[in-house]
Design a protein that fits this description.
With 252 residues, the protein is an alpha/beta fold. Helices cover 38% and strands 18% of the residues. It has two domains: 16-59; 66-251, 3-Layer(aba) Sandwich (Rossmann fold). It has helices spanning 16-34, 40-59, 66-76, 95-103, 123-132, 175-183, 200-203, 206-215, 239-243, and strands spanning 85-89, 108-113, 139-143, 156-162, 185-195, 220-225, 246-251. It has a seven-stranded mixed beta sheet with strand order 3-2-1-4-5-7-6, sandwiched between helices. It starts with 15 loop residues before the first helix and ends with a strand. It binds S-adenosylmethionine (SAM). S-adenosylmethionine (SAM) is lined by residues 12, 71, 90-92, 95-96, 113-116, 119, 121, 145-147, 162-164, 167-168, 170.
């Protein structure tokens, strides 16, 4: 939590993405100096560290910043009456869970995350952020993996997620957490899931994905490319950043 009592939503660029190449760049520099100038590694790793450093700055923190605008894309696609239970998969420091609780004042919201080492996110910060936002009585957090959700089939009226499925490491097939998301959604429930769905290696083509969801019994599904939104700077449009961003939305 920041000192001024504003929420801390953190950065999507893991610190190690900056620190590891910066260290490798330094080591390459030392090796280069010792061997009278072989500076390719120094330059290469330096550029990578700089790229992720600048991206982290672009992505960083607070309302009204880049991350907030990307999360807002999910919110803007939700057509729900707010009655019942919502699930935010891979909630991070809970920006989306809190937005949901604020927009739907009678909804109960559950945020789950594995809170691994890659990010500086935690359940404790989620709870503090929810308190600061005045929604802690309707938002709860659980430590779980998106690959195996601890909920019965047909539990939630709304399921959302932002930039999570491609990050799930405990299963190889990134469509497994997607299947989990839809399994726990009630029949007739709404889903709005944003991720790097244009990465064919993980998800196949958009048409493949739509067919797959239909084969799982989903009634309606739409694939919306969001990586071309005007507010997204060119620098972060590489596919592994947000250049493959898309939304899957529909009704089960
Ligand atoms: C790029 S961050 C996005 C966080 C959040 N959705 C947001 O919009 O700020 C990716 C998130 O996925 C979570 N994550 C990665 N693997 C996970 C897993 N197996 N189960 C649940 N969450 C996972 C990470 O802990 C992290 O919070």
């Amino acid at each position: 939590m920041k000192k001024d009592n504003t929420p801390d939503y953190g950065s999507w660029v893991p610190v190690k993405m900056i620190v590891i190449p910066a260290l490798l760049s330094l080591i390459s520099l030392l090796i280069g100096l010792k061997n009278h100038g072989f500076f390719v590694g120094f330059v290469l790793f330096g550029v990578i560290a700089l790229y992720f450093g600048i991206s982290s700055y672009i992505f960083s923190k607070d309302d009204k910043h880049f991350q907030d605008q990307v999360e807002q894309l999910v919110m803007d696609h939700i057509t729900w009456d707010g009655k019942g239970k919502a699930l935010d998969i891979g909630c991070g420091n809970a920006p989306l869970s809190i937005k949901l609780a604020k927009k739907f004042p009678t909804a109960k919201v559950t945020g789950i995350d594995s809170w691994g080492k890659n990010w500086n996110y935690s359940m404790q910060v989620c709870q503090k952020n929810a308190e600061v936002a005045g929604v802690s009585d309707r938002v709860e957090f659980q430590h779980d993996s998106a690959s195996s959700l601890p909920f019965d089939d047909d539990t939630f009226d709304l399921v959302v997620s932002n930039l999570v499925f491609h990050e799930v490491q405990d299963v190889k097939d990134k469509r497994i957490p997607l299947h989990e998301a839809l399994r726990v959604l009630k029949t007739g429930g709404i889903f709005v899931l944003q991720d790097l769905f244009l990465l064919k290696a993980y998800f196949g083509t958009p048409q493949d994905l739509i067919s797959l969801l239909k084969s799982w019994g989903v009634k309606e599904v739409e694939f919306i490319k969001t990586c071309d939104e005007d507010f997204i700077p060119g620098l972060v449009k590489l596919p592994f950043m947000v250049g493959a961003l898309a939304i899957l939305k529909g009704e089960k």
